[in-house]
């Protein structure tokens, strides 16, 4: 192992250290640590390092250039060299270099492979010693840099540490040929014709030894038979003893069963047992009643707290509350009396239905007479009489839903009528109706079978719905309650004495061109499908 330390400045390189250590393949890292420790005074931290592998640490093979892009050649070599090198594909780290000149008709590259298991400890060692590894190269490419570029071809032979010879040919274009000359290594210089065929075989088995062996085997067999017979007799005696004990136990068990079946229960003990069972059942019933009471009381308090938290608006806060039977006592503050009144009230639905002689179906845009009223009640369910005058500002809002209770958001619902409050009751004065608009695009849609008309009351408190209608289970801001249900059609046809079957041609008096109506179109207008 050799360590070269050079310093570069002003474009020149000055050799600082040239030292070596004798090493074996198993202690290379240990020797490297030792030689670095020897020169730690040089402050080599973050120094750039090029690791040069000896000829015994890599393999190089001349192969045909793979038919891939240049940047992919190195990665493809590990799979094409599996049969040409001694390393497996998973352990190969591969790269290549090219000669400046190629024989006519050939396109070769020199593949260089090394073991990943060999190189990884070196990478970790250099990083642990704060050295910056910039390259891992091989000796056959490093040695040419020691020769001044020749003006004519030259052949140089190097002797390696393994007593082999590396022959290289240089030209002005660079390295042209490299090869390890393995034929000049140490050769066998002795002959020994005393082979295994001439070695005599010793006959170790004699008649006396055979006889002795047979006698020993017979003695062993006889001893084993004697032992087996003794063990069998012992087991048989033990088995008979256990059988007698089992029979005695069975007889005793039978006797005890007979005594138990003949025994009569004591009337006093039976009566006492019944009394104890009754007492235990009463105790369990009493305990369950206590648990039910504690659970119901806790649930009532939790439910009250949750409901108060949900319905208390901004501007109102509570200091104390209490329960006494079915009455609730509240104590707190409010920023103004109007919010307090609205918070304490909720609307109770009185009447909600379609009005008139025909309530089975309506057309879009057609007025739908309604009968509607609501009553304001407080938290105790009693009618609130002071919801009148300037405090009574709530007005109705209407929504349309299909039979699956999905809101028809593209259809607006308006109403015609006067809504007034008096003594806590709100209602339309005189005739009132609502109408569901058609689509703004003008495209027909429907029919909506069993469409639902929903409504809610708007407190007109900056979009805050402090009070809601009972049974407000339709989707809307803070929920909407159902008014009534009917079929809703897009419109109706006005034909003049014209008759035909569905999906047949029709002519009117005012239109000479034939009209064709599909079943879907007829259903939108008439509700018939």
Provide a short characterization of the protein structure:
Residues 232-266 form a coiled coil. The protein has helices at residues 28-38, 73-80, 116-128, 139-142, 207-262, 267-311, 337-344, 519-526, and strands at 2-9, 12-20, 48-53, 59-64, 92-97, 108-115, 132-138, 154-159, 165-171, 174-181, 316-324, 327-334, 345-354, 361-363, 368-378, 395-401, 413-422, 425-436, 448-458, 481-489.
3D architecture notes:
This protein folds into 4 domains: 140 residues, Nucleotidyltransferase, domain 5 (2-Layer Sandwich); 49 residues, no CATH class; 146 residues, Immunoglobulin-like, CATH 2.60.40; 37 residues, no CATH class. 29% of the residues lie in helices and 30% in strands. The chain is built from 8 helices and 20 strands. The longest helix has 56 residues.
Overall form: flat
What is the CATH architecture term of the largest domain?
Sandwich
Distance between the termini: 98 Å
- Main sheet characteristics: 4 strands, antiparallel
Number of domains: 4
Beta-strand content bin: 25-35%
Briefly, what CATH class of the largest domain?
Mainly Beta
InterPro entries: ATPase_NBD, DUF6701, PilN
Protein name: DUF6701 domain-containing protein
Transmembrane segments: 210-230
Keywords: Coiled coil, Membrane, Transmembrane, Transmembrane helix
